[in-house]
Amino acid sequence: MTNPVKSAKPAVPNEPIVTHIYTADPSAHVFEGKLYIYPSHDIDHDGPTNDNGDQYAMEDYHVLSLDDMNAACADHGEALHIRDVPWASQQMWAPDAAFKNDTYYLYFPARDKDGVFRIGAATGTSPAGPFKAEDNYIPGSYSIDPAVFVDQDERAYMYFGGLWGGQLEKWQTGEFKPDVTEGPDAAAPAIGPRVAELSDDMLTFKAEPVEIAILDEDGNPIAAGDEDRRYFEGPWMHKYNGLYYLSYSTGTTHKLVYAVSEHPQGPFTFKGTILTPVLGWTTHHSIVEFQGKWYLFYHDASLSGGVDHKRSVKFTELRYNADGTIRTIEYEAK
Ligand code: FUB
């Protein structure tokens, strides 16, 4: 393993935690007493920018860590490169990590050789990597943005899915339809994220993924045209006071929002906004408890002056109200 590169300055809330590389889509976890962050590694390029997400042309992952929230952030170097993923062709998008079976698992989406987004797994003995990819993607996986949640009973669930470049519209029938680009009519239920329980080996699904229902306060499905509340991409799961909080990006309206359930697979009831729109088109996050406080990890494009595909991971404290609702954080560009 290479020695980590440490930032020159201690981490500060709402400022990039590293500035020597562009990072995005942070998935934060506490492993071995430290906070580890699994981000996308954005690259600088002059390729096309479009709704298909071709500008997000990432090729590898770096793992970051913080000893505490005032420490300088460490970059542990390349943890996995696409050249070492036998089934993948391009675009290593938002990853996540989990620990079970004395093994660290890195989960990541990428396009397969046919251009279809799939979700792969890689394993390692350290939370900092490196990770060795499995030969094939997880059978039955599709779309993007895996978030893996290991519950107190040790059952593990993968939440995933993303519209537009993430191809979720193309899976509406349960099969991949390459020519489908439209979602449901505006008044019809929105396309939901998917959840699949993982097998004990953490490398396969126990059962086929199912669509998650997100309902309004009256128990009606959030409609596809309700772009302030409907699911777009970037799911995250955390548990607070025994309830399951599913949070996600609304994409076109650029918010991070959340919904709550008594069950890990829902149905979930929409609750509100976690973070108002950031600088840059995408917004993507994770929520983690560390050393007695809760934190929101997110990204924006401030370091690059607003270039959508050159983003930086930041964090801020997240607070709950007494009734378990999350206090909305107003984004401030810095
Ligand atoms: O980083 C590429 C894609 O942008 C992610 O997979 C989405 O969640 C969005 O952040």
Automatic annotation (TrEMBL):
This is Family 43 glycosylhydrolase. Pfam families: Glyco_hydro_43. The keyword Signal does not apply. The keyword GTP-binding does not apply. GO terms for molecular function: hydrolase activity, hydrolyzing O-glycosyl compounds. CDD domains: GH43_CoXyl43_like. One of its GO terms (biological process) is xylan catabolic process. The lineage of its organism: Bacteria, Bacillati, Bacillota, Bacilli, Bacillales. PANTHER family: ENDO-1,4-BETA-XYLANASE, PUTATIVE (AFU_ORTHOLOGUE AFUA_2G04480)-RELATED. Keywords: Carbohydrate metabolism, Glycosidase, Hydrolase, Polysaccharide degradation, Xylan degradation. Belongs to the glycosyl hydrolase 43 family. The active site is at D46, E211. It comes from Paenibacillus lycopersici. The record marks D145 as: Important for catalytic activity, responsible for pKa modulation of the active site Glu and correct orientation of both the proton donor and substrate.
